[in-house]
Amino acid sequence: MRIALDAMGGDYAPEAVVKGAILAAEQLEKDDVILLIGKEDVIQPLLNEYNYAGNNIKIVHASQVIEMGEHPTKALSQKTDSSIAVGYGLLKMQKADAFCSAGNTGAMLVGAMFSVKAVEGILRPSIGGLIPKLNGGYGIMLDVGANADCKPEVLEQFGEIGSIYAKYVLEIPNPKVGLMNLGEEEGKGTVATQAAHQRLKVNSNINFIGNIEGRDIFNDKADVIVCDGYTGNIILKMAENIYDILNEKNMHDPFFDKFNYEAVGGSPILGINGNAVIGHGVSSPKAISNMVLQAQKMVSSKLSERFHKKYSV
């Protein structure tokens, strides 16, 4: 397994990324390799400084960096030797099984759409957010930011995509799908969510349990939470802030500690040709390591191949 990692992406790159790669390398299988993408004359001295002497990390040189504030489309077209462009190039050529970056989120999305592209039959790739559950596991919510507005048929497909992720990556045998809404009753919600409910209700590929409300996010009512990216992003950012507030007040609890972005490391881009994970801009070494390990699980569960099998004609 070859997992490409953007060494130059993130507020604390490259130091935090290189440290995170070393942490992840210790937990990978002996034949797995992390491809650290970035400026070799910057990365190699750091590996030496941190006394890395293993065989699980290789450097792939990329001379350019897409900064956080740059326009995604313009930057990718102008910086063809950037770490993000090179990472997607490796994924497209199947020289990497997954690509992870805590860099420019917009560039990661644009790269996914225009480099490796969506799986044929996928209407809109989405970003999945892993949601801690009170029972100890995780659920997945999609979308959490890629698509602010969604048509009913897109929301319906999110239910299918999320079910595949929940079943094979989170290992939930028959994942329950809930539609985020402002009431449990079937007729509640916007025109789009009402229409999506009717489509999800008759979809035999999923275990649809109906509408769910905000109070159901963390209980076991639904394993897959379907919503547009506007709603999902607000929920995700609020959950992260709850952790920050509790941390500031020195209040700790095993459940709320899972709200820390470091716990899962990143958010998967679902529905593209290959596996990609977007990390938080402020990713620490622990977050980087968990992002790589999440990508490893996506590859080993053959997630991308399962999307192909379902949607490609």
Automatic annotation (TrEMBL):
UniProt EC number: 2.3.1.274
Catalysis: reaction(s): a fatty acyl-[ACP] + phosphate = an acyl phosphate + holo-[ACP]
Localization per Swiss-Prot or TrEMBL: Cytoplasm
InterPro entries: FA_synthesis, Phospholipid_synth_PlsX-like
Pathway: Lipid metabolism; phospholipid metabolism
Pfam families, per the entry: FA_synthesis
Alphabetic keyword roster: Acyltransferase, Cytoplasm, Lipid biosynthesis, Lipid metabolism, Phospholipid biosynthesis, Phospholipid metabolism, Transferase
Superkingdom to which the source organism belongs: Bacteria
UniProt-recorded Gene Ontology molecular function terms: phosphate:acyl-[acyl carrier protein] acyltransferase activity
Main function: Catalyzes the reversible formation of acyl-phosphate (acyl-PO(4)) from acyl-[acyl-carrier-protein] (acyl-ACP). This enzyme utilizes acyl-ACP as fatty acyl donor, but not acyl-CoA.
Subunit structure: Homodimer. Probably interacts with PlsY.
Family: Belongs to the PlsX family.
The protein, known as: Phosphate acyltransferase
